[in-house]
């Protein structure tokens, strides 16, 4: 696994802004997302992680169980408004962008080419540049960011929210502030929808895994989220879950076994 420098400084930032770790929506996988409800709430674009969110790690094709949900997503947002941001395809670990091309072909959407791994601010800048370049530009508050890892996908989405509004996210600030734009952007204190200009992207955490990978780190991430929910006395997924998560139960996901030669040979390594 490559060294993720932008990810290494996350714990220090969490000391001051623990809510960066809180997902707005928690689902097992994307089949539970209500695309129509998201569109109706003003979300026009989507950023997706790849590994263990849409594909099996080190594989470029969509997990077969997600075919219908993925088609519905593309139909709802439009393929040009959906972007794959991976810490494998499209990075320096993908020389020549060969894997990015393959993923783009199989998933039918563009793959972001970026030099810094998620959740780096330079990666965020690349995402904003892409969505600003569209014929109908998409703002941060009109994006959903979907991924299976707290320390990369969710932190990145919430970092975008941090820069999208002026209100506090820290525990101390939150305790002294009862109502402001940033607090409402991440954790609404009432049933009023924050307007698109003042909110950040919607951070969506997929907790299921299609192939076991970094399970100890995933356990730590879950414990961190639980702890921050208690510490800050807030859980945005209660509010957003009622609105954007389908009630029906999805079939249990079969977890693929790792090949015996895991991890793959050098030069084929991906995050
Ligand atoms: Mg992933």
From TrEMBL:
InterPro entries to which the protein is assigned, alphabetical: HAD-like_sf, PGP_Pase
Protein's UniProt keywords contain Signal: yes
Keywords associated with the record: Signal
Cleaved signal peptide residues: 1-23
GO molecular function: phosphatidylglycerophosphatase activity
UniProt KW Signal keyword: yes
Record's protein name: Mitochondrial PGP phosphatase-domain-containing protein
Originating organism: Pterulicium gracile
Phylogenetic classification of the source organism: Eukaryota, Fungi, Dikarya, Basidiomycota, Agaricomycotina
């Amino acid at each position: 696994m490559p060294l993720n420098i932008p990810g290494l400084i996350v714990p220090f930032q969490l000391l001051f802004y623990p809510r960066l770790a809180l997902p707005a929506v928690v689902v097992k996988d994307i089949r539970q997302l209500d695309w129509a409800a998201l569109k109706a709430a003003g979300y026009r674009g989507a950023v997706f992680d790849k590994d263990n969110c849409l594909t099996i790690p080190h594989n470029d094709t969509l997990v077969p169980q997600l075919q219908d949900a993925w088609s519905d997503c593309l139909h709802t947002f439009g393929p040009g408004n959906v972007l794959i941001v991976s810490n494998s395809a499209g990075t320096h670990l993908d020389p020549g962008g060969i894997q990015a091309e393959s993923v783009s072909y199989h998933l039918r959407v563009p793959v972001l080419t970026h030099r810094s791994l998620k959740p780096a601010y330079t990666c965020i800048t690349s995402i904003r540049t892409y969505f600003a370049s569209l014929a109908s530009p998409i703002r941060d508050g009109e994006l959903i960011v979907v991924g299976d890892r707290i320390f990369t996908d969710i932190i990145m989405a919430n970092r975008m929210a941090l820069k999208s509004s002026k209100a506090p996210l820290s525990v101390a600030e939150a305790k002294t502030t009862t109502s402001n734009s940033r607090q409402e952007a991440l954790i609404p204190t009432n049933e009023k929808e924050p307007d698109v200009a003042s909110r950040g992207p919607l951070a969506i955490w997929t907790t299921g895994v299609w192939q076991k990978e970094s399970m100890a780190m995933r356990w730590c991430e879950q414990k961190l989220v639980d702890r921050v929910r208690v510490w800050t006395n807030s859980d945005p997924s209660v509010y957003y879950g009622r609105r954007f998560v389908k009630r029906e139960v999805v079939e249990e996901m079969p977890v693929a076994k790792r090949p015996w030669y895991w991890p793959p040979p050098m030069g084929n390594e991906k995050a």
